[in-house]
Every structure is written in structure tokens, then in C-alpha cells.
Amino acid sequence: MNPVLSIWLDACRILAAFAVFLGHAVGLGVVSPWIGIQWHRSADDAVTAFFIISGFVIAHTTQQRADRGLRSYVVARASRLYSVALPAILFAFVVDHIGMWIDPSPYVPGWQYPRPWLYIPLHLAFMGETWLGASQPFTMAPYWSLSYEAWYYAFFGLVFFLRGWSRWVFAGAAFLIMGPRIWLLMPVWLLGVWLHGRIDAWRMSAGVARLLMIAPVLGYAAFLVFGWQKALDLASKELYGVFSQTLPFPFSSGSTVHVLSDYAMALMFAVFLVGCAHSQLQISGKLAAWVRRLAAYTFTFYLLHFTLFVFCMALGWRHVGAWHFAAITFAVFAITWAHAQIGELRRVSYARVIDRILPAKG
Prior knowledge:
The chain has helices spanning 3-27, 39-64, 69-102, 116-124, 144-161, 164-178, 180-198, 206-225, 228-246, 259-278, 285-295, 298-314, 322-340, 347-357. It is an all-alpha fold. The protein has one domain. The longest helix has 34 residues, at 69-102.
């Protein structure tokens, strides 16, 4: 991968994760409005960036390891997901019960807690956003995006590695299982895949590339200031209404709240990445090392923070000031680091276990 783009992708992961963090802090009322109410909406836009990065990186790594086959792909993708998802779900279950003992009100409704034997396997199978309905494990609201990505991984791997009738049968089955919510954001993820196949072929000067980095930032600002985002949000709701009236099956948007706005955000972010790839703006030295190091924790940070915010609500920490919020942020960072020691940073160990569980080659 283009080394300039590689480090920019890691930087974007960090910025997107923190945007989601701030958005949820504002949305849940943990932090006072001084931080800016727009962060609440920008959290969703940051997840759109995550989807494009995911599609891009999966296309790259799969192409690089194509000779290893589908089984190796399954081990790689499953270890990536379960090294974070499994300990995170158990973490949420435990922390939520402690929070409910302090103050049960932030945990209503709590219909999943009495039946963990049913809902934990359901979410580990990433079925929470399929035809079965839209649900996340306990208070782990950000988990919805994993339920999308897991099915995108499956579909892409089946299309990439299988041939003949088996490709269409198994990829088609995966597509049907996803359901309409996951279908709607699939073009965003596939945009990342498409971008990977073409980004190095485009030729441009560093000056033009840097303009392509600046233009989406200004475009996003205009998107917010001139009300274009709100207009597309409204159009998305109208589109969902059309779906509900015309589709031959029940439709609920679930976690795909504003698909048309997501498409616009995806296009802007894709242009930004094209600019990054050709900008010759290299992040190097100690800064690059810190970017790499922090990026390794973004998946865990993304999943855990919402559960910890709800726990803060149980403690009565609402609309806190700047210093209190800084302390909460530091605590979330520390818990993320500790959690990653048995999760995200132990991915190789998870891969070994998964490799032993899967049927042998041939």
C-alpha cells in the first residue's frame, strides 16, 4: 500500500473514533453543551468513514494474500472481529450489571439481560441487524456497525475466492441473510473496495492532490452550514416511507438512519483519501509511530466507550464540566488499553484458536 496513504488511513481511524466518542458524549448528555451539539450528528458521519476505510483495507489485504485461499481469509477476518467483539460483549454484560445495581434507570429497557444465553450467541453471530430486527448487545450501541461489516466481509470473501456456481449460491445466500438495512450501506463499504483498485492508477500533481484534501473538508462544512445534510436526512426518511409502502416485506431502517446523507459523506471522504494518496504529505518519525500505536486501539475504543458513558450516567455524571470530562476521557483510554491486552492486541492468539476450530484444508 502507498506508505503515505497508509499512515493517513491510521490517522483517519483515530480522528473518526474520537468523533464518535465526542458525539456520543454529547448525545447521551454526559458532557455539557460547551463541546458543541453538532458532534452528536458527526458521530454517524465518522462511522461512514470507517466503512470506506474497512472496504479499502480488506481489499488490499485480501489481494496481497490471495494465494492463501478462503480458509485463511476466514481466519483473518474472524480473528479481527472476535478478538474485540467477544471480550467487549462480556465486558458490557458485567459493567451493565454493576451500573444497574447503582441506578437501573439508564438500562431501561433491559430485555436482553435475563437471557444472555440467547442474545450473546445472537450477537456473536452478527445477526442483530439482519431480518431478525435491529438490536445491539446490552448497552454496546456501536456494535451495530460490526454486524454490518461482518456480512460485508463474508460477501466479499465469497465473491473473491469462489468460482462458478458456488460463488453465486453462497454469496447470494449471504446477501439474502443480510437484509435491507445492511444492503443500504453496502455501497459505502464497496466504495472503499472500488477505490483501492483505482487510487494508484490516477495521476496528479501534489498540488492538485492537496486541493482534493481541502475541498471535502470545506464541502463538509458547507454540507452542515447550509442545511444540505438536514435536507438529505429528511429525504432519507421519505425514501424509507416509500420502501415501507412498496416493498413486499416489512421494512425498518434500524441503524441505517440517514442513508442519503451517508452516501454524500462517503463521496466526500473518498475524494479526501484520493488526495491523501497523492499529496506527498508524509507523516513520519515519532508522530507516525504514535499514530500507528494509537490506531491499534481504535476498534476497542470505539466499542467500549458507549457502555462506559452509560455507566457514567448510572453514577449521576451528567452535563459534566471540562475537567471532569477530561478525567472520564482518560479513564476510557485506560480501560481501552487494559481491555486490548486480552483482546485486540492478542489477535494472533484468537487466530490460532479459530484455525484449530475450522475444518482442515481440502
